[in-house]
Design brief:
Length: about 220
């Protein structure tokens, strides 16, 4: 089971997961807008990293056979789900994540974990899109050259985080001739679509969206 959900008011990610799956352990990292991806396919790694709280990371790689619920939160950043055979991953990437290579890192980790896989499936959830997400040249200069944006007003740029994520994933998968990629992108903009929470729109009052995968 998996999904993208806007959390109810005053409910955090752990409370949501616990309410939906009271008999399953939540695996939700403390996100830092960095490039750390945790490989928690083995029970020992899960116990070590999550035994004392929430480790800092913006990506998780795990087995679909794990009886837990894995999640990342967002409020304009790109939430992603990936799968190759029985290896799954979740990642969170704002413009800093797109710039520091977390998507390339998590794709390579999933592909390496499943050397016989022929297909990588990727779901890209709602995020800040080109219609609303205005950034300066200082942001564009830090992003890969394949970032998707257009010129805005007054020398600013309008960035599509979701489309940029799709391009970066496709480029990374192309490094391996043995694996193909299938990408589904929600395409909804969290800034102007009020079904979703947005930090750019609501500031400190913004709630959070959650991307989750419940293991077997």
């Amino acid at each position: 089971m998996h999904g993208f959900v806007a959390l109810p008011p005053k409910m955090d990610d752990t409370a949501f997961v616990t309410a939906q799956w009271p008999d399953r352990q939540p695996f939700i990292p403390k996100q830092t807008h960095g490039s750390e991806v945790l490989d928690i396919r083995q029970e020992m790694e899960r116990a070590t990293l999550f035994g004392g709280g929430r480790p800092c990371a913006d990506g998780l790689v795990f087995s679909g056979n794990t009886p837990g619920v894995f999640a990342v939160q967002s409020a304009d950043c790109v939430p992603l789900m990936l799968r190759a055979n029985q290896t799954f991953a979740l990642a969170h990437a704002g413009w800093r994540g797109l710039a520091n290579g977390i998507l390339q890192k998590v794709v390579r980790m999933v592909v390496a974990a499943e050397p016989k896989a022929q297909l990588l499936t990727v779901l890209i959830g709602p995020s800040a899109e080109m219609c609303c997400y205005e950034v300066g040249d200082e942001v564009i200069e830090q992003l890969p050259k394949s970032a998707v944006y257009r010129a805005g007003i007054g020398g600013r740029c309008m960035l599509s985080t979701g489309r940029t994520a799709a391009v970066l994933i496709s480029e990374t998968v192309s490094e391996s001739a043995a694996v193909k990629v299938r990408i589904w992108r929600a395409g909804f903009c969290t800034i102007c679509d009020t079904r979703f929470h947005s930090f750019r729109r609501d500031g400190k009052l913004a709630g959070r969206n959650i991307a989750y995968i419940a293991g077997n």
